[in-house]
Amino acid sequence: MAHLDKLIYLDYLSEQLFKPFKSEEWFKYTIGVDIGAGRAKNSFSLRAFKHDNSETMVVDGWEFQGLGYEEKKKKLIAFCQMYKHLPITGIFIDSAEANFIRDIQGDFKRMGLPEVAESYKATIKERIDMNIVLFATKRSFFNSDSAFAKRLYQAYSIAKWVEGKEGEEREDKNEWLNDLIDSDEYAQTRYMKALMKASKEVI
Questions:
Q1: Nearest Cα to 117, choosing from 165, 181, 187?
Q2: Going by DSSP bridges, is the β-strand pair 28-34/41-49 parallel, antiparallel, or unpaired?
Q3: Which one of 65, 104, 149, 161 is separated from 178 by 20 to 30 angstroms, measured CA to CA?
Q4: What is the pLDDT of residues 76-93, one digit of tens each?
Q5: pTM, whole model, 2 decimals?
Q6: 4-15+25-202 adopts what CATH topology?
């Protein structure tokens, strides 16, 4: 059991962040992708945003064990096609996966799927600060009808600071929770500045 003072989001998460997803309430969407290596998981996270970026929601996602390149690509295509009725503005992948991004960009364009790009290179600390603000002001929600969204909420609830570096560095021991959080943060960083600007207006 983690020491409570080591849990990053303990004071900011609550059941009030769960609500059902209704597509008519949301304006645009992104997909964040984390490609796991070794025993790490692969994770896709679908996020919804209001037109003014005042609120965002985890709509759904997939997580699965490491697979070969072609299988990962097929899974991402299948996930996109499942949500092709939504206005997805882009698929944002860990910038460390430059080869994977480059290899699938042309295929996705030819298939009429959303644009594939590197995620904005925000530091992990910047991403943590963003989510603390969004959770604290109750502007980042989790779809109560999605098993993935519930598991992602669990991931955020057990995310810890590195011992001795509280407030500075998130612990990453190559566990499932980091893969889910990373994919979700990649989905948010496209609108990171707009989300933070809207936060200042709310506060």
A1: 187
A2: antiparallel
A3: 104
A4: 999 999 999 999 999 999
A5: 0.92
A6: Nucleotidyltransferase; domain 5 (3.30.420)
